[in-house]
Amino acid sequence: MKTDLRFPKNFVWGVATAAPQIEGAAFEDGKGESIWDRFSRIPGKCHNGDNLDVANDHYHLFKQDFALMRKLGVKHYRLSLAWPRIYPNGDGAVNPKGIAFYNRLFDAMLKEGITPWVTLFHWDLPQALEDRGGWRSRLVTEAFATYADTVVKAFGDRVKNWITLNEIPCFTNMGHGQGDKAPGTNETQKVINQTFHHAILCHGHAVRAVREHGGKGARVGLTDNSTIPVPVTETPADIAAAKAWFGDVNAHILGAISGGGYSAAYLKRCGADRPEVRKGDFDLISLPTDFLGMNIYSGTFVRAGKKGKPEVVAFPPDYPQTSCPWLKIVPQSIYWGTRLAHEVYGAKNIYITENGCGYDNEPFVDGEIQDLHRRDLVRNYLKELHRAIGHGVPVRGYFLWSFMDNYEWQDGYTRRFGIVHCDFKTQKRTPKLSAKWYARVMEENRLV
Ligand code: PNW
Predict the structure, then answer these.
(1) What would the pLDDT profile of 213-263 be if each residue is shown by its tens digit?
(2) For residue 21, is it within any domain?
(3) Ligand 1: distance of its center to the CA of 223 in Å?
């Protein structure tokens, strides 16, 4: 059938999750405590007091989860490794049961014909490291370097696609500034900037580890949640304003990892709060990567103001959104995000490593969750991704967040992002309408 919404040959279609959000078994087989295990127990921090102890019990149910993925036609799966499962104390002795678990997991995945895309760090810092300073301390970068070496050596024969860290701004700023993510502290801007610097240094260590131990065909990249402008009108003036704004607000991360160090504008903004940088740090941070992962959920409207200067237009109260106040529905963000990452920072192979939506109220109707809202949102974003590819933006793949409803951090189990429903009492999985729709998209490599 002819359609203009066909995607390029070999386009990677997948789904995504993260270890702390689905594995459960939080204290089983020698796993150490993570900062989220600790944070979720502080009264008032997480919705309903929900914690990660059981989650989707994927630790025990992974075989059936991979069988379901296969049934839906999922061929690529982004997951993360739990650092405290491998190093219960953050560093020191490896936990052989942690390694054994992921060996079983990768073998089962490959048996179902599913290619793993593995994130080394998706926010679950070992609490033992937090107790020694966590992201504030340079020690974390040494521990992470060893962890990265260990897992790339252990699983590099089966894992060829590595993602270094997930959304650095989220766990540094929100974890140490706003206090709504673990460890949940409110610290000075200087400390926050230092946590950020240590995190991008860890990105560099992960790239180095993959180059040293990844073997033939190994590829590596960061997953960033870049701040994305959408020009109010697609006219040269507003586009130029959006482009300038994108360059500026993402310089400290996209500029830094692509060889630029910290921009003068960023350092000026930091003033006396600039992070301590050691000689050689940027040699690691700017090691070349193979792709850029982008988590794109939303954007910020920008237009040319006085003298063409970028001006942000705030969302009016009735602007459409999901159940997450931060997730305003802006499909064009995926077009402008990928296009500007390519144009401004030269990103060559871009993968959308997350896109999707969370809702609190998704009732069963005749045994099915008819999530037309999710199907519509994803389809509209994908149309914009298709437009980007048509304009020559090098987008190679798309991972829908999330494979199944899971632990949505401080919003607990109420906020559902899955295309597969999970009953957290019985652990029964039920594909939603959106899963059946997405299965057809993956199969036909076009928007249906
Ligand atoms: C991402 N924001 O988090 C994470 O990578 C996932 O683990 C998470 O479940 C998913 O998106 C849905 O939230 C984000 O405030 C959290 O803009 C917050 C924001 C963006 C992404």
Answers:
(1) 999 999 999 999 999 999 999 999 999 999 999 999 999 999 999 987 999
(2) yes
(3) 12
Asked whether the predicted pLDDT for residue 14 surpasses 90, the reply is yes
Q: What would the two tokens of residue 293 be?
A: 């992962």
- Does residue 275 lie in a domain region? no
The CATH number of the domain where 158 resides is what? 3.20.20.80
318 Cβ neighbours under 8 A, 6+ residues apart: none
CA angle, corner 419, sides to 416 and 421, nearest 5? 60
Pocket lining: 408 vs ligand 1, CB cutoff 6 Å? yes
Is there a domain that residue 254 lies in? no
Residue-range definition of the domain harbouring residue 134:
12-227+284-297+324-442
Mutate to test the pocket of ligand 1, among 23, 46, 225 (most ligand atoms within 8 A of CB): 225
Q: Looking at the 3D structure of the chain, how many domains does it have?
A: 1
* Residue 3 pLDDT class (50, 70, 90 cuts): low
What count of residues does the chain have?
A: 448
Q: Rounded distance, CA 393 to CA 391, Å? A: 6
Residue 414 falls within a domain, yes or no?
yes
Whole-structure pTM over 0.85, yes or no? yes
Q: Is the CB of 248 under 6 A from ligand 1?
A: no
d(CA 201, CA 129): 16
* Ligand 1 geometric centre to CA of 357 (Å): 10
Residue 58 vs residues 55, 354, 405: alpha-carbon distances, Å: 8, 20, 12
